[in-house]
Amino acid sequence: MDAWVWWLIAAVGLGIPLVLTAMPEFGMFAVGAVAAAVADVLGGGKVVQVLVFAVVSVALIAVVRPIAARHRNQRPQLASGIDALRGRQAVVLERVDANGGRIKLAGEIWSARTLDADQVCEVGQQVDIVEIDGATAVVM
Fold first, then answer.
1. What band does 29 get if pLDDT is binned at 50, 70 and 90?
2. How far apart are CA 2 and CA 29, in angstroms?
3. What's the CA gap between 129 and 121, in Å, rounded?
4. pTM here?
5. 133 Cβ contact partners less than 8 Å away, ≥ 6 residues apart
6. What percent of the chain has pLDDT over 70?
7. d(Cα 67, Cα 114) in Å, to the nearest integer?
8. Is 29 in contact with 14 (CB distance < 8 Å)?
9. Residue-wise burial string across 54-67, b where 16 or more C-beta atoms lie within 10 A, e elsewhere
10. Is the pLDDT of residue 43 over 70?
11. What is the dihedral sign for C-alpha 65, 66, 72, 77?
12. Can you tell me the distance from the alpha carbon of 11 to that of 119, in angstroms, rounded to the nearest whole number?
């Protein structure tokens, strides 16, 4: 059997742990094996094939891993759900104090309470949403 076939078998063999473990390094080694198969088809000797495998695999790991790590550590740019409500403004519909009240937030009526126990917000006043506690907006 030709060497390029063995390189393709190695690429498939490296692709299996990629799928099972979700470790992208195996995929980079698989791409290196495919590159070595191409080197064999183009007439490269055994040393050239191994060098192509090593260089392509290491280059992919050196380039792709830092990019992937940078993307993994970034927070999502789009807030959704209750995270999207924090920091927004609402209008008081019923007097809001530490015990409760009602506000209009994003077109919906919410129960609300103040962050400070001494604070009172009157009808028509603009308030800022500090957090969402269950189904209650905490305002100030």
1. very high
2. 20
3. 13
4. 0.53
5. 113
6. 99
7. 43
8. yes
9. eebbeebeeeeeee
10. yes
11. negative
12. 66
